UniProtKB/TrEMBL annotation:
Lineage top rank: taxon: Bacteria
Keyword terms of this UniProt record: DNA-binding
Gene Ontology terms, MF aspect: DNA-binding transcription repressor activity; transcription cis-regulatory region binding
Name by which UniProt lists this protein: AbrB family transcriptional regulator
Gene source species: Thermoleptolyngbya sichuanensis A183
Length: 130
């Protein structure tokens, strides 16, 4: 079976309309048809159900995160600051990767400056995106 070219994941009203149109399919098939899947380097297709379900929740306008209920530490909001860990690693948290819509397996080229680190995303063909 030939697979069509991957589409940009649907959001908002277009997502709700497409899900309604596909009412007879399984939830995994709906997620795939709405663009919520990735293809690994080995050609294996993986449906991203969590992103699909979160997009549906957002499209319905349901607010699950409480903006006012913080624990005094800022919760999970991005502070745009990181600290070198005791083992020498820099950890970029999920708040940033979610904001950039990054997926597990996305690759980057690292270039180092005097006091900065620049990441350039590598596309599916191994080409650095500018």
């Amino acid at each position: 079976m030939s697979r069509k070219k991957k589409i940009e994941p649907l959001t908002g009203e277009s997502l709700l309309a497409k899900v309604k149109q596909l009412e007879n399919l399984t939830k995994e098939e709906k997620a795939r048809e709405c663009g919520y899947y990735t293809v690994t380097k080995n050609g294996v297709e993986r449906v991203n159900m969590m992103k699909f379900l979160n997009a549906l929740i957002d499209a319905e306008g349901i607010e699950l995160d409480s903006k006012s209920a913080t624990n005094g530490r800022g919760g999970r909001s991005a502070s745009y600051r990181i600290t070198v860990q005791s083992n020498g690693n820099l950890l970029i948290g999920s708040a940033y990767t979610k904001q950039m819509n990054l997926q597990p397996g996305d690759e980057f080229e690292i270039s180092l400056g005097r006091k900065h680190i620049r990441l350039k995303q590598i596309d599916e063909d191994g080409v650095v995106e500018e």
